[in-house]
Amino acid sequence: MPIPRVIPVLQLKGRGLVKTKKFSNSVYVGDPLNAVKIFNEKEVDEIVIVDIEATQKGYKPRFDYLQDIVSECFMPVSYGGGVTSIEDIRTLNKIGVEKVILNSIAVQKPDFVKAAAERFGSSTIVVSIDVKKNLFGKQEVYSRSGTQNGKKDPVEFALMMQEYGAGEVLLHSIDRDGIMGGYDIDLIRKTADRLSIPLIACGGAGSIQDFKNAIHSAGASAVAAGSMFVFHGKHKAVLISYPTRKELEQLQTNEY
Amino acid sequence: MKIVIVDYDTGNVNSIKNMLARIGATSEISGDKSIIEKADKLILPGVGTFDQGMRSLMERDLVGLLQEKVMQDKTPLLGICLGMQLLGLSSEEGELPGLGWVNFRAKRFNFSGLENEKQYKTPHIGWSEAYSVDTQHTLMKDVPAPHRFYFVHSYHFSASPENKSEVLLKSTYGYEFVSGVCKGNVLGVQFHPEKSHKFGMQLLKNFIH
Question: Is the complex ipTM more than 0.85?
Answer without folding.
Answer: yes
